[in-house]
Amino acid sequence: MAETGTSDKTKSYDGFTEEERAAMKERAQELKKAPRKKASKADGEADVLAKIAEMPEGDKAIAEALHAIVKEHAPELTSKTWYGMPAYAKDGKNIVFFQSSHKFKARYATLGFEENAKLDDGDMWPTSFALKEITPEVEARIVELIKRALG
Asked: What Gene3D superfamilies does the entry give (predicted)?
């Protein structure tokens, strides 16, 4: 989309990256799927495992470890996809998600928490974390954050 007063040849901004457009299409498919049938816990689990299986090896290992952590320490969370990413929800509201570094060609994978996560700490607190590897120390921190996020 060209700005006023410039030609399309001098301006190449399209609004969204190819990766962002793909994520929006995935979200649209998720929303189309939902009204037709109430997704079961097994459906969400299968969708998340399928998305993890598509990831490059490094991110796949992190996502598999994160998935196991969530299942063990927060079994009340329901697995689902969200913009084509593994996410975990309580009462239908997203709490935590994983974003592969490959998803948006980022330097690192991301562990993120949505606004329904109870991580509030004064006037400012982190809601996303770079993940390069899940070590025992990182796992302990993730468990702590997820438990705090659930309240």
From this structure: 3.90.1150.200
